[in-house]
Write a structure and sequence with these properties.
Length: 159
């Protein structure tokens, strides 16, 4: 079966930065619902259209095609007393970006002199990426998957 709208695609991937450094790879296949449901980067989805199980695909993603450009306005310094006593670099907190009112996940990047620096950018924002994948399986989506807009079962969403 070829990958097309309303098919469930199971694939393994490796994600590299522009220098070829491996950032992430799947241990188990991931599944997504193909056809504009937002389960995978749009450029990757476009590149996978028409392919079949066993085929491979490499897609270069510029920051705008993946996790966005780095936004320096999302780096904020706050008084340390606004945070829990056990605050550490690397901890993550949900917060609201003042300009957009959107909820973001902020990562603590520095703690010094009673101040905490948090960054609301995705860790891969501003980075060009290479998405390299191999298609494991392609199947038609179930009626329930189409109604919900995501994959159910094995490597997908469980209710």
């Amino acid at each position: 079966m070829q990958i097309g709208k309303n098919s469930v695609v199971s694939l393994r991937y490796k994600l590299y930065d522009a220098q070829g450094k491996l950032i992430e790879e799947t241990e188990e296949p991931i599944d997504y619902l193909h056809g504009g449901y937002g389960g995978i980067f749009p450029l990757v989805e476009a590149a996978l259209s028409g392919k079949q199980a066993g085929e491979a695909c490499d897609v270069t993603l510029q920051p705008a095609d993946a996790f966005g450009e780095y936004d320096a306005t999302l780096v904020v310094m706050e008084p340390q007393d606004k945070f829990p006593a056990n605050i550490e670099v690397g901890m993550r907190f949900e917060g609201v970006a003042s300009a957009s009112k959107d909820a973001l996940i902020y990562t603590v990047t520095n703690i010094a002199d009673g101040q905490v620096v948090v960054d609301g950018n995705h860790p891969l924002a501003g980075i060009a990426l290479l998405f390299r994948c191999t298609i494991e399986q392609v199947r038609p989506a179930t009626k329930e998957e189409l109604q919900h807009g995501h994959v159910h079962g094995a490597h997908g969403h469980h209710h």
